[in-house]
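# nightly structure sweep
# worker-07 picked up a monomer target from the shared queue
# config: single-sequence mode, recycle default, output format = structure tokens
# input follows
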Amino acid sequence: MNMQKIDTAKVEEYRKQIFSHRSYTNYFGQSFSEGDLYLFTDKSFILAKPAEDFYRLYVSSDDKDDLVELLKFMDGINVLNVPTKAEIATWERLMSDAGYENVGIYERFYYQDFRTGGDLDAVIYAQANDLEEIYNLYSGYEGFIPYTDYLPSRLELKQFIENGIVIINKQDGKISGVNVLSITGKKCFERIIIDINNKGLKLIFDMFEVLHSMGINYAYGWVNSKNVKAKTIYQLVGATMDGLKDYTFIKK
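# output follows
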């Protein structure tokens, strides 16, 4: 049994295979892309998407034991996320049986009331030549873990910068903070925010000004459940925790 590359001619067949199994699933319509791998039996399906040095897994199965065996079979570093508002005990048992451990819990928050009134002209947008400095800022930050934080790849960051939705802070001519925003329709996903000089609030208020000017009426993001300081700050500027949690399991 081997991992196989996605055959685009069979994408719809695979998609039907995924949607037909719902007992254990963290697949919610993720697209099939070049470089993806898959593994399946009559009872289970695993989609493996390559990241920097690991695979992020999306699974769907109606048989716990069958899925456990597939997960055990996979080599290398594999990461699986389970976003849910429900109890996680069933998944914890499944992942433990497959040799995975829980390495992080993140909570989703959202803004619907943007606190504006600042200076939109003072917002600094990242330029193409800022790419490496920004990438090095967050990829080298000890507070972020690639497995749990969905850090943008260089290619993704390049695309974000080209779309004009990367806000930065500067101090002494160097980039000290960044807020990467992904816009879909009237919604914004705050992909990553970091400032090493304690000026993160400016990045948040700059985001509010930008989104308000674009007619965006909803923004959301994720925060480490152990990062009490960040959660407190987000709530002070109007964020609401909606109860959805994302559990990250990893097997090395």
